[in-house]
Write a structure and sequence with these properties.
Layout (H helix, E strand, L loop, with lengths): L5 H7 L2 E3 L13 H14 L3 E2 L13 H15 L6 E4 L3 H13 L4 E4 L9 H14 L4 E6 L6 H10 L5 E4 L4 H11 L5 E4 L6 H6 L4 E4 L6 H12 L3 H23 L2 H11 L16 H13 L3
Parallel strand pairs: 1-2, 1-8, 3-4, 4-5, 5-6, 6-7, 7-8
Helix pairs in contact: 2-3, 4-5, 5-6, 6-7, 9-10, 10-11, 11-12
């Protein structure tokens, strides 16, 4: 029987939340705090979660911690069809992580952009093919940050791996995204705007139907307002939401996104929802910047 992945495709066409990974005072993963943050998202109406995403500090977690985060997420949601587990690193590690997620009930994995300094386009295909072929029953979503990758390469990958069902596209260029999606096959994949709410309106106008979000950890209702407006084609309202979140996202994106996670955790800390600590190479915000983040978070209906 051919797997259609319709449930997974539907889950991608919305707000794809990237939960933070809170740390306890001793530096370990705060399991209770993480569950509470997940429950807050789920209770607010967020249905699709990506444990072990970049906002979850994927590259700063140990293999055991990544497994723990996956396990906690699937236990809390109770529905693996809407959990998109982040996997990556070398091929054997990524495959082992994907199989671990599958065995726990997950139905999708997101493959992080390869961090090898020398990535050829054909090698990109080989890397993702090896992972996708190892878990043919899972929906696979490549995370694309490489502006040199051609859309035809994604089509090539999907020709041999029909379980490649969606794309998290994170190149900050809406025109390039529009061309890439059409070269790969606009209707063939679910296109997720991987640069979150700031890029969602422009990417939706070019064919995206979902967007990732780290801001959703802080203000789920704001992200839901954005997806509601975009689904109805109301770009005037979508841009009003865009203005509302603009400064918060500018702070996250400053200096090459150095404080991408830091700002989110600082906002959560100001609301008493988790500790502010992040792991190197990220760092906590200095005292003089914390007040602005707290004021923004306090101003949202959370």
């Amino acid at each position: 029987m051919t797997t259609t992945f319709e449930t997974q495709r539907t889950a991608l066409a919305g707000v794809v939340a990237i939960p933070v990974t809170p740390f306890a005072e001793d530096g370990s993963v705060d399991r209770t705090g993480y569950r509470a943050l997940l429950r807050r998202l789920l209770d607010a109406g967020i249905t699709t979660l990506t444990p072990n995403g970049n906002t979850g500090e994927f590259y700063a977690l140990t293999p055991e911690e990544r497994r723990t985060v996956t396990e906690l997420t699937l236990e809390e949601t109770g529905d693996g069809s809407s959990v998109l587990v982040g996997v990556g690193h070398d091929v054997p590690t990524a495959v082992a992580s994907a199989r671990h997620a599958r065995d726990l009930g997950a139905r999708m994995v997101m493959v992080h952009q390869p961090v090898h300094p020398y990535v050829s386009q054909s090698g990109w295909v080989d890397y993702h093919r090896a992972i996708a072929e190892a878990v043919p029953d899972l929906g696979v979503v490549p995370y694309i940050r490489n502006d040199r990758l051609a859309g035809a390469r994604l089509a090539e990958l999907a020709d041999s791996c029909p379980n490649v069902i969606g794309v998290k596209y994170s190149v900050p260029d809406a025109a390039r995204f529009a061309a890439f999606a059409r070269d790969a096959g606009l209707e063939r994949f679910v296109w997720v705007a991987g640069l979150a709410e700031p890029y969602a309106p422009s990417y939706f106008s070019a064919g995206a139907t979902g967007f990732t979000s780290g801001l959703v950890n802080v203000a789920p209702s704001v992200s839901l307002d954005m997806i509601g407006a975009l689904r109805s084609g109301d770009y005037v309202t979508a841009m009003k939401v865009w203005e509302q979140i603009r400064r918060f996202e500018e702070l996250r994106g400053a200096n090459g996104s150095a404080n991408n996670v830091t700002v989110v955790k600082e906002a959560l800390a100001s609301l008493g929802l988790c500790r502010r600590e992040v792991r190197p190479p990220s760092r906590p915000l200095p005292e003089d910047e914390r007040a602005e983040v707290a004021a923004i978070a306090a101003g949202w209906s959370v």
